[in-house]
Structure formats: C-alpha cells, structure tokens
Amino acid sequence: MDKEKYEQDIHSKDDVETAAEISPAENSYQRSAKTEGDQTTGSGKMFGYIALILSIASFFIAPILVGAAGIVFGVLAKRKGANALGNIALIVSIIAIVLSLFTAPYV
C-alpha cells in the first residue's frame, strides 16, 4: 500500500507542476502596457519615407526592381512601427508591379 500511495503522490505532484507551468503568469498583461501608444521610431519613419519614394518611383523606373525594393522597405518600416507609411508603400508598390505586368506586352 505504501508503494501505491507513493506513486499517487508522485503523479499528483507532477500534475501540480505541469499546471503551474501551463497557467499564465500573474503579470501577463505587461505586453499591453508596452504597446499602449504609437511607438514609431525615427528609423521607422525614415524607412517609411524611403519606401514611399521607391514605390512612387516604381511607376516610372524599372517597376519590378524598384517596386520590390519599395516592398522590402515598406515591411521594414512596418516592423519599426511606421504602420501607415509602410502600408501605403506596400500597396503602391504592389499596384505598380501589377500594372507593369499587365501593360508590359503593349509597350
């Protein structure tokens, strides 16, 4: 009987430890405090403006290459916190690439 009780104690201790590891921490809402405001950095705005310039230039110069560079810089701008500039640059670059693919046979 002692062996059975010992095994039950071991299993119950394992369950308690597993439950403690799976359960959320007490201060699990610290992430929301970090993202309360718009955390745009100076480098994010710089990447955003570069992406916007490249995406507008992609309508006139090498749309696939310059548009791809605009997409890359747009993603970098979004990662740095400049969401609006990054989104605009991404959309304009994609439009420029798609338009160039449709109009390339006629030029």
Describe this structure in words.
The longest helix has 21 residues, at 2-22. Helix 3 runs antiparallel to helix 4 (63-80) and helix 4 packs antiparallel against helix 5. With 107 residues, this protein is mostly helical. 76% of the residues lie in helices and 0% in strands. It is elongated, with a radius of gyration of 26 Å.
Segments where pLDDT lies below 50 for 5+ residues? none
* Intertermini distance: 89 Å
Mean pLDDT, nearest integer?
79
The total count of strands amounts to: 0
Q: What would you call the structural class?
A: mainly alpha
Q: Major beta sheet, specifics?
A: none
Determine the strand fraction and express it as a percent band.
under 5%
Task: State the order of secondary-structure elements, H for helix, E for strand.
Answer: HHHHH
Number of helices: 5
Approximately how much helix is present in the residues?
A: over 70%
- What is the rounded Rg? 26 Å
Name the shape in a single word.
elongated
Quick structural overview:
By secondary structure, this protein is mainly α. The chain has helices at 2-22, 30-34, 42-57, 63-80, 83-103.
Q: What labels would you give this structure?
A:
107 residues; mainly alpha; elongated
Blueprint of the fold:
Elements: H1 2-22, H2 30-34, H3 42-57, H4 63-80, H5 83-103
